[in-house]
Amino acid sequence: MATATFPEMIEAFAINKTGGFEVLEKMTMPFPKVQPDHLVVKVEWIGVNFIDTYYRQGLYPYPSFPAVLGKETSGEIVALPTSPEVLSNPDFQRMGYKVGGKVAVDCLGTHSTYISIPWLKAYPITHGVSTRTAAAGLVQGLTALSFFEEAYKVKKGDTILIHTVAGGLGLLMAQLGKHLGATVIGTTSTKEKAELAKAHGADYVVLYKEEDTVKRVLEITNGVGVDAVFDGVGKDTFESNFEMLRRKGTLVSVGNASGAVPPMSPLKLLPKNLKLCRPTMNHYIATPDEAYFYREKLFELISKGVLKINIFKEYPFTQEGAQQAQKDLTGGKTIGKLLIKVD
What we know:
Elements: E1 9-15, E2 25-30, E3 38-48, H1 50-57, E4 67-68, E5 72-79, H2 84-87, H3 90-95, E6 102-106, E7 114-118, E8 122-124, H4 131-151, E9 159-163, H5 168-179, E10 183-188, H6 191-199, E11 204-207, H7 213-220, E12 226-231, H8 238-244, E13 245-253, E14 275-277, H9 281-284, H10 288-303, E15 311-315, H11 319-330, E16 337-341
Parallel strand pairs: 9-10, 9-12, 10-11, 12-13, 13-14, 15-16
Antiparallel strand pairs: 1-2, 1-4, 3-5, 3-7, 3-16, 5-6, 6-8
Helix pairs in contact: 4-5, 4-10, 7-8
């Protein structure tokens, strides 16, 4: 692979220190070091996620600075690995990588014009899905699929609760729950968001600013409670989940939108024999077999219209665009996915 075919410099969204929105900059940096087992991808779309804000704030640590933000992108493969061992690996060959092929990427530090990444972090896009849709659906789609399969296996006849249901992940979970035959209860802040959630499979939506969520959920379930809670809010909703779960229920702590959950004693699970899980998608999808299984499942469900990917807004590839995307995401005013188009 001739490195001369690549530009010497790239543009990236990065930080020199942790802090508020203002620390997010658009920087010019050297082209990333290409390892023998890496794919090189020219990025077309960037997906904006809460995890980007956690790293920017310092909730999750970076080992050094400057640090490139982001973990979700899509684009075109411009170079394959140079390692003969990788190229002859049956797992590599099964995935179908090729120069000019389109991939969606889940890898930290990839919000830039070009990226060099381990091959297993890139998912060749199948079933006619576009790079725009793939960037909008990859991380949240894989999260919804793997959590509903492995954190708690959602099945026909279950009743599940999703906090909150009208964001990108919540809408995918509502659709998937309905597809699997579950009764879906969601929480959200406005009537507009409630209508959107219902249009995406939620059977009941609780307006948490106007209603008593615990009381309403227990009414809906005739006092029994739900089989599982998928909670992306964190600190503000954590305690009330224990009141809404049925005996032998499962609490899946998905995220920290309102802040991290404080430490708790395992004895809190005792009164109803509850299970508590705090998973991350990347530990469910870590092997080639897992990557292949979930990749196929995701793009097939998108292509069939079972999972509709809602794109709320596109932002320009500028410092102001990236800062505004994070402000909008954390401000609670978005419905669906935020993307940045890489020029």
